[in-house]
Amino acid sequence: MGTTEMVLQKVHGALRLKNHLVRECFAEFLGVCMLILFGCGAVAQMVVSKTTRGEFLSVNLGFGLGATFGIYISGGISGGHLNPAVSFSLCLLGRFPWKKLPFYMFFQTLGGFVGAAIVYGVHHDGIHSVDNGTLSVTGPRATAFIFGTYPAPFLSLSNGFIDQLIGTGTLLLCIFAVVDTQNYGAPKILQPIFIGLSIVGIGMSMGSNSGYAINPARDFGPRLLTLAAGWGTEVFTTGGGWWWVPIVAPMVGAVLGALVYELLVELHHLHTEFEDEEDDRVEQKLKEMGSSPTSCHEGPACRRDKPGTEDQFVMSMAAADRAPSGLHVTPGPLTSRGWALNAIRGGPSETLGCFEAPMKNEVNVEQGERPMTPVRRMVNQATSRMKRLRKKLRIKNKLIRECLAEFFGVYLLILMGSASVAQVVLFFDRKGEYLSIAFGYACGVLFGIYASRGISGAHLNPAVTFSLCLLGRCPWKKLPFYTIAECLGSFTAAATTFCLYYGPAAARCDNGPAAVCCLPRTCSYAIFEFSYGNLTVCGPRATAGIFATYPVEYLSLRNGFLTEVLRPTVVQLPSPPPPQQPHQPGTMAAATLADAIEAPGALTPPLAPR
After folding, report:
1. pLDDT greater at residue 500 or residue 493
2. What are the structural domains, with CATH classification, of the chain?
3. Measured CA distances, 607 to 79, 219, 610 (Å)
4. Do residues 496 and 163 make contact, with C-beta atoms less than 8 angstroms apart?
5. How far is Cα of residue 351 from the mean position of the Cα atoms in its chain?
6. What are phi and psi of 591, to 5 degrees?
7. What is the pLDDT of residues 10-44, one digit of tens each?
8. Sign of the CA dihedral 28, 29, 32, 34?
9. How much is the average pLDDT of 122-128?
10. Which of 69, 299, 338, 560 has the smallest count of CB within 10 Å of its CB?
11. What pTM does this model have?
């Protein structure tokens, strides 16, 4: 080995971080920095070039690509949350330790600040050429919105809160659908790409109200940069004190989105019933054996990594609790429970699974049980209550599970599609065009399929269900139930879109109220302001076309009927969903320890937000 290589090896050894939490925080910092660099950089290029080198579509793609590469950077180390709302929702669901939450949130926000600082340095001269060096927050030469999000003129705080809540909830719905291997699930290597596409779809359908922050770190970090760079305290007072909405609303929306997916889809997977039965059998055996804490030498070897690897033991114990018959996971050093599990399941002395390889700083654990602190006891009690609640809420009727999946899939489809139409119509093609409508519906179909394909087959269309019944690929008795669930999902999504753009405040532009504005195409309208308070179906101010389809003036009923007949023929009929088989003894569990979404109880899921 040469001298240079030896020196480099020593430098690498000296710089290598041994604390796992610090490594995770740095990964989150770098991932969010990449997100802001791509996203806010795209906004800056659009503003500086006056839309000649970018438009609203390029902004959406910028944030989507930033999230994708941010996940690739940090996903294997920290889970790629990139969003305090995602970390917070996972903590509430018991899939991420609370003690890591403040560190993740701080470094995510710091990554947003540093990323915004880099964008400001790159586009410094261009930004000052646009605002003549005044660094204004509002007005025709405003540039603060390059970094932070601000409400549209018509948007009230209540409507803005709903906007951020629904946007973040939709993000979590898409993320959970993509990483859920018990449903359809995307390959792990492609998950960051699909999560980035979900952000593009949300931007094309829900980005016009306030810039779709859907991420406290993405908004608050850059906002602090604008405060420090000279935009002043107006960044916190503009919009009626808007700054707190992109912080609080995404937190609430992320929790609601995660709960909706779990209650409608994930909770009712078939494999969980067999896992619960096996857990009950194991618990009964443990009671009969009178299991008590024993030393590590009674069972498989217990290993412990010195530098902050306590979470690895929690993950290992969670894996042992979830492992089906035949899968033997090394237990943690807390009790002999893991050894008892292997003994009950007839396992050999050696173990398989994660953390079986010797650690670099492997030491022996002292005999005896680890003392139970009040906090740990409270967490264990909350986890037990959550498990019992999940058992009570689980639906065992297969048809009901399928109908819930169809409802959920159609909801995502119509929400992204109709909201993209609303964004194009109400903003006079400035926040989208016909291409963005097509892309919005395509994203809706994509994530609707991921949400329901593994459960119901992802028909998402009564016509598809009817054709499959005629071909003998779907039982006729399911047709009315599927149809009702799909129509109900469509109705709920349309109602959600209406809530996003109902616009209770008066729209305004530079020349006064929207109703008397002489340049209407420069204004931003909500649904009521767009139609001057009259919800019309026909005419230049019609808004009913946002939610349903209507023929153009020249189209006859005969030609329209022929069009609707021919369109479905280009859609390939989905094949029947593969049967869901319960885990059999000796099979490997489908979930992995690193995926908190795929396996409740693990600690670092492959997630990412905007």
Report:
1. 493
2. 19-268 (1.20.1080.10), 270-393 (no CATH), 411-500+543-551 (1.20.1080.10)
3. 6, 19, 10
4. no
5. 35
6. -85, 160
7. 888 788 888 999 999 999 999 999 999 999 999 99
8. negative
9. 92
10. 560
11. 0.74
